[in-house]
Amino acid sequence: MIGSSVGFQGGTPSFENGWNGFAGFLLGTPTHSGKSSQFIKMNSLENVFALYVRDRWRATSKLTLSLGLRWELYPTRTRSAGMGIESYDPTTNEVLVGGRGGIPRDAGVGYSKTLFAPRVGFAYQVSNSTVIRSGYGITYHSHPWGAQALRGWYPLTIVAVFDGINGYEPVTTDPNYVAAGVPSQPLGPGVGIPPICCPDISKGRITLPLSNDMGYPVANRQLHRGYIQSWNFIIERKLPADFVTSVGYVGTASVNGFAFLDINASQTPGSGNNGRPLFAKFGRTVTTREFDGRTHSTYHSLQATINRRVAGGLFLKGAYTYSHAIDMANYGDWTTFSWNAPSVFYRNKASAANNIPHMFQLGYVYEVPFGSGKKWATSGVPKAVLGDWQFNGLFSAYQGRQFTLSASGAALNMPGNAQTPDQVKATVDTLGKVGDDGTWFDTSAFARPTGARFGNVGRNTMRGPGVVNTDLSLFRTFKLTERFQLQFRAESFNLSNTPHFANPNGNANSTSFGRITSTQSAADAIGRSRELRFGLRLGF
Questions:
Q1: Residues 248, 234: contact at Cβ < 8 Å?
Q2: In whole angstroms, what is the distance from residue 517 CA to residue 436 CA?
Q3: DSSP code, position 430
Q4: How far apart are CA 337 and CA 268, in angstroms?
Q5: Cβ count within 10 A of residue 422
Q6: What spatial distance separates the first Cα and last Cα of the chain, rounded to whole Å?
Q7: What single-letter DSSP state applies at residue 526?
Q8: pTM confidence score
Q9: How far is the CA of 74 from the CAs of 112, 145, 216, 311, in angstroms?
Q10: For 301-422, where are the alpha helices, taking DSSP H only?
């Protein structure tokens, strides 16, 4: 059995926390157990082909044109041993297994052969110090839809979960005693983990268990692979002291980005599972995800840069962006929607979670004018002390990320659709408090919704704390011999030790609603506290 596992969780008065739950697991008394089996080898093979031609034409002494055309091909994925892909038939609650029982390896999921992506641009030299650049192009989404989003669904991986009769009766995992059981149904004391029975896929159609969620591309229909349109108009100008600056407009529009739509989401407020389309047909109450290109997003920005090539020991590179990004979902390998019912699907379109209107960054390298070949301190003690030092730094300042407020969906009773609170004040004041000092925003501006209806707050209406950060390093290189040199490095990250706080709790039903209780994730380098690092590097 590949990938077998046992889970555990506290469920009795004596299992009050994670540590007691772990102890229960070690003693063979977990309240929750299960296993998963890789039934079909998940060696997805997905090829990508592309052909690109481009011509650059200097039309006049001042005008240069660039024309290009890219053709891309993304054939449907396959697997070894004649296996293909899986799909789902919502009219019969059956999984279609590609390559078995007369089902085509691609399950009839087609792909376009006409993905042509034109690119065009020009550069016009207005004067010796000013250039205008502009361009437009299309890029198709190259996301490998078979590698992540559609990896591991039934029957590729078969999962079974078992719970005790109640919180006082744990499920034992004695491998010497196995009794018949149904996944997700209570098992009595002394019952081990039953074997997972493998379905017969020879006919190409198998009934999808009601307890299994599912993700699938639509059979016998061409997959909609989306594309991104990009355009810009930039004015670049050379300034005195070797500075070069640019200012311009940059925009993008993404069409048909890959995402999952829950076709089994409840359709009517207050209907609960009875409002799920597949519940009336089959009694199915779990998420059923249809995969296709369906998201749309836009990005518009004013971008300005200032650069200085290395001259006089100084290098500078700075950028400021004023922008607005709008999308329908947080993009990733598992892009999903907050609202899946057609009647409220429009609520998904809003400012993106990564919409940061103001962003400024400045990086620099400065070699002090002391030491050999420099202006001052070229010999003796001054050279030994002051010579050959180099400063490097990066300063960042930008607004916080947006986030969505949530509320309990119990009264709404519309599974597959998110609930938000009601905003009861015209404006929401930002209080700026952290931790025990109070809330980040005025929580009295919101109320928990009542009845079977949606709250009036939309997606990503709030913004968290911004970030100001300075990284600084100091280098010096010592020439030991003609061949060997030793470099000393002193580096600091977040030199000012400025806290970079995470977004506040956005759950209106939480006792910590509106409070910031943590800093940004440790996985995010910008979220770290001050860090000092020293090192020596030997080069030869």
A1: yes
A2: 9
A3: B
A4: 17
A5: 18
A6: 53
A7: G
A8: 0.84
A9: 8, 10, 17, 47
A10: 380-386
